[in-house]
Amino acid sequence: MYFPVLRSGVNAQFPVSRVDEYGVITEETPGGGMWRTGTRRAALRRWRLELDEVSDEEALTLIQFYETVRGGWQAFSFADPMGNLLVWSEDLGKPPWLRSPAISVTPAGQPDGEPAEFLIVNGSAAPGEIWQELDLAPGAAVCFSCETLTPGGPAGRVFSAGAEKRIVLESGWNRIFVTGSSSGGFQRVGIELEPGATLRVRRLQAEMQISPSEYRPTFEIGGVWTKTRFAQDGLTVIATAPGRNRIRIQLESAMESVL
Prior knowledge:
Elements (H helix, E strand, L loop, with lengths): L15 E6 L2 E5 L5 E5 L5 E12 H13 L7 E4 L18 E2 L3 E5 L9 E6 L5 E9 L4 E9 L6 E5 L2 E4 L7 E8 L3 E9 L4 E10 L16 E7 L6 E5 L2 E11 L5
Antiparallel strand pairs: 1-4, 2-3, 4-18, 5-16, 6-9, 7-8, 8-15, 9-14, 10-13, 10-15, 11-12, 11-14, 16-18, 17-18
């Protein structure tokens, strides 16, 4: 199950807040020294969503969803509205990344304080891809973006949830993005290279919105949280105008690696 998507294709509105909670045990020795260690309890990520101008139909969908999962009893999937949905955006060689057999990926350096860069080469006579598959709710807007540096010649395209855009050949680093609409389930986002093409990339990011925001690097944990629950008793819907409502929602999920 997926947290419902609003008519705009997103699952949250700004302002939205997010807090990470970790369990820590602190002990003080007789000499005044401090000793700290983590607990066995999993760390939690919490979100507070403030939804305004919600239509009656959208409000009813949220109420029915809350009843279906029985409040905080049953888990569901939630795409972090403040996060990069990709796993390991800083290492394209990790398992979440899939690629065609002839596609090779080589680290191309990481300047001090900058995101990692990668050289992608298609060594075959056919187009080749590198991509991730994100499990997202139907109707969700899916924006995939990256920065590319092309050494010249035909390059390829970027694609996201059925939409695609050609990579424009320009000098220097260029940020390219494409926004598709999720059909529900696993959605492909990534890059396709023309036969024999070479491309240098960095700052790969996927978001559940229509345009890209500032890059946020990811490692073991991406932005799709499959064990999310409501962290509140009851769901309060306040009518603010005919056909318009305000809803405050609190969610939480255990912070666990997908690997």
